[in-house]
Amino acid sequence: MKSANKSGNRFSALIELFKLRMTSHILITTVIGFYIASTAEFDWIKLGWTLLGTGLLAVSAFCFNQAIEKKFDSAMERTQGRPLPTERIQVPTAYVAGFITCVLGAVFLWQKTNLLTAGIGVLTVALYTGVYTPMKRLTTLNTLVGAIPGALPPLMGWTATQNHVGMGGILLFSLLLFWQLPHFLALAWMYKDDYRRGGFKMLSLVDESGKTCFRHIILETLLLILVSIFPYGYGLAGEAYLITALIAGFVMLWLGLRLQRSGTRVDARKLFLFSLIYLPLVLIVMAVDKRVFFM
């Protein structure tokens, strides 16, 4: 019985290491990219392989990230309960899991979609673990760099169908890129004390007043609103998408301005939570309102 419980605990810890909730969010953006790029009969089998490969690569990035950051996660209240700080999983196990899932994900995408999509997927893992993760302790630019791998999954959905990047793929990538900046900066303000304990360089720690962080949130939300117009302008989606994107964008801007005035964790949380609504809302309406698009 004890052996079974121990095995069950290890399996549970491994699932926690894989961050399946975050992986599912990533896969939603991949589905949207795949669907918008599909111009002929929808290929459900290819979509399945695309999701499997992309999901495995996302899991790989999370495994490597947590293995690298075990010591720093141990110092932060928000992350102390993760499998590695609690030693429910050992660092070598996390590295092995990351390597296996990376190889499997890359091979599946290469064999079942195309080499371009597999290459972008491997690049995502490399940027997330090899560049973004160490940069978090070196420079506040880490948020911008980290937004790049976070914006690549919808592009992978696009290239899995189109086998080229094209303007449509660039627009999806750009939308995700600029959405992530206010999203993560709101999170950084919510957990600024935790990030300080972990030794991370965040905009929320540049000054105690938060003026620098809030200024970037406003600027980058304005850029998000601007970028969200482009899919309509290039014919990727129609009027329903444009109206939805603009309304949602201005709500985010309003929440950002409220945070700038108050500086409270409560308003940062409101902005963060709405950003979680913004992305699936805008992407789903874009998919529903998509236009046949060859670019």
Please give the structural blueprint.
Elements: H1 2-17, H2 20-37, H3 44-68, H4 70-75, H5 91-112, H6 115-135, H7 142-162, H8 166-190, H9 192-198, H10 211-233, H11 239-262, H12 265-288
Helix pairs in contact: 2-3, 2-7, 2-12, 3-5, 3-6, 3-7, 5-6, 6-7, 7-8, 8-10, 8-12, 10-11, 11-12
Shape: flat
Q: What is the percentage of strand-forming residues?
A: under 5%
**Structural class computed from helices and strand pairing:** mainly alpha
The percent of residues in helical segments reads over 70%
Unreliable parts:
1-5
Average of per-residue pLDDT values: 92
Assembly category: single chain
Task: Give me the count of strands.
Answer: 0
Counting H and I runs of at least 4 residues, what is the number of helices?
Answer: 12
CATH superfamily of the largest domain: UbiA prenyltransferase
Number of domains: 2
- Major beta sheet, specifics? none
Distance between the termini: 59 Å
Known CATH architecture of the largest domain: Orthogonal Bundle
Written as H for each helix and E for each strand, in order along the chain, the element string is: HHHHHHHHHHHH
Radius of gyration: 20 Å
CATH class of the largest domain: Mainly Alpha
Task: Give structural attributes.
disordered N terminus, Four Helix Bundle (Hemerythrin (Met), subunit A), 12 helices, 2 domains, 295 residues, 0% strand, Tetracycline Repressor, domain 2, mainly alpha
Folded structure, characterized:
The chain is mainly α. It has 2 domains: 1-164, Tetracycline Repressor, domain 2 (Orthogonal Bundle), CATH 1.10.357; 165-295, Four Helix Bundle (Hemerythrin (Met), subunit A). Helix content is 79%, strand content 0%. The protein has helices at residues 2-17, 20-37, 44-68, 70-75, 91-112, 115-135, 142-162, 166-190, 192-198, 211-233, 239-262, 265-288. Helix 3 (44-68) runs parallel beside helix 6 (115-135).
